[in-house]
Amino acid sequence: MVQIGDLGERQLIDDFRTFIRPEGRVGPGDDAAVIGKDVVVTTDIVTFDRHFPIGMSFEQFGWYAAAVNFSDLAAMGARPMGFTAALALPPTLDSQNAYDIMSGIDQCAEFCGTGIVGGDTKTGPGIVAGTAIGSMDGRAPMLRSGARPGDIVAVTGPLGGPAAGYAAIENGLDYPEATETLFMPVPRVAEGVALAESGIVSSCIDLSDGLGTALNTICKASNVGIDVEFSFLQHETFVDEISEKTGISLEKLLIGWGGEYELMFTADPNRLKKLYDSEIEFFIIGMVNDSGKAELIKDGKRSTIDYGEY
Amino acid sequence: MVQIGDLGERQLIDDFRTFIRPEGRVGPGDDAAVIGKDVVVTTDIVTFDRHFPIGMSFEQFGWYAAAVNFSDLAAMGARPMGFTAALALPPTLDSQNAYDIMSGIDQCAEFCGTGIVGGDTKTGPGIVAGTAIGSMDGRAPMLRSGARPGDIVAVTGPLGGPAAGYAAIENGLDYPEATETLFMPVPRVAEGVALAESGIVSSCIDLSDGLGTALNTICKASNVGIDVEFSFLQHETFVDEISEKTGISLEKLLIGWGGEYELMFTADPNRLKKLYDSEIEFFIIGMVNDSGKAELIKDGKRSTIDYGEY
């Protein structure tokens, strides 16, 4: 007998993937599934155990549980249509805390232009299994597999906030602005819709597993390489300060970490005007090539970018 | 502080309902939510703790986790488009058992004409939070609120199987046919679609909480009463035998129990030909009236039908 604890969660998810069929055009391996004509669906579990850092409120935990799902919709370019929340909560939980979780989910759903449309509640250790449903409204879904050599690589915002926030907590530093980005990530729903609408985006992914993992995932799915220019990466304002105080390198905070919910995308460099016209914020961080690997260029030197540890 | 364990699960679900908004035409209180033009979504948690009776296999547990969700789609008349499975499993679980759960989900989804389109796996006590997504394909969704005095009341199959199966297990009786109906309920998806398509069904609900609860729920939602004729109820073949051997009354097994996944519906008596033409199986069990209560008529005597205990 092989216990699933020995197998590891990643392995189990990979093994389970054989059960997942693309009912529509898009199957496993992307942020969400496209089913039917243009319904998009994704599900993610968050737990008290693993996603409830010290200092986080129950409301923020609820927000977070919803945000991770809406971010997956955003990465496909889907417009949220609804959210279902399945909760398994300890019987000893203060009912006010339970309402706060629901309120946090509700607020995040409202921010994303939709609401909670269904749910279930049972006894459990503190688990929220959220499912977000969206519509492509006729747009083509953005996949991970479309990047082409010559495309630019860009992200929708400054990086390192959640990693720095976590490092601050771990080191007893008081940076509420940093911990806020960790506790209440902003799903880039409007950005995702605008990117898909532009028609010039060749691939897209969210940074939930960190920039390093995102880059390697796109390289593998699209069979390309990517060069990232370190000096192009925009830092959240407090990231440099926290890096200095904790001794954790900027590379680690900006690239090697997850819990980040910006979108990373590749796009046709000759039609960027379409994106500038859409008025969404984005920063070019590198270029797609045919090297087959993700590399960082810093002070003129090249190094391999690994999958993150998240 | 009020612990949610003291509040009770029903109360918590009722309280949480205030967060649920009808994004489309149908909101909380029905088996599933209709969002957008005709997407239907529902989510239900099953746990090792509460939904894994002795003798059930891991495959059957997976089937059950999917079936309860597809049954909710069926009650609205939706055609399944996809299923997402969020699993929280003990690290000590044999990986073969984990695959068996996924395989059971997969088989049920396939039976319902669709497949698993996404999922997530984390560590936990043994929880499957399933979400089923379906489409109305332009049909009007069947609600709980449309029953009218004069309508017939019908169910899609014989009753009492799961209750008798559970009673058999509890009493150490060997009735594999009965336990099968408990372990592997058949979601009435084709029947639900046909009922919605007929255009003559005024309300519908699944019997997951038992016939008594279903009757009372329809009475309340539709502001009507219902008379059920006891002799009209069809019994699964082994139900009478198990009732006799265990001493549990037929009323209890047929009406007072849940875990039953037939559909109950009300329909216009003047256009029943539409239903007979559709070739789905159904049994008329009573009539809708304006008494405001659900009553049983047995040997000419009337008694009140209560909500079930499930």
Please characterize this protein's 3D structure.
Two copies of one chain form a homodimer. In chain A, 35% of the residues lie in helices and 25% in strands. The first copy, chain A, is α+β, with helices and mostly antiparallel strands. The first copy, chain A, has two domains: 30-135, PurM-like, N-terminal domain (60s Ribosomal Protein L30, Chain: A, 2-Layer Sandwich); 152-304, PurM-like C-terminal domain (Phosphoribosyl-aminoimidazole Synthetase, Chain A, domain 2, Alpha-Beta Complex), CATH 3.90.650.10. A seven-stranded mixed beta sheet of chain A has the order 7-9-6-10-8-11-12. Chain A has a five-stranded mixed beta sheet with strand order 1-2-5-3-4. At the A-B interface, helix 1, helix 2, strand 2, strand 3 and helix 4 of A face helix 1, helix 2, strand 2, strand 3 and helix 5 of B.
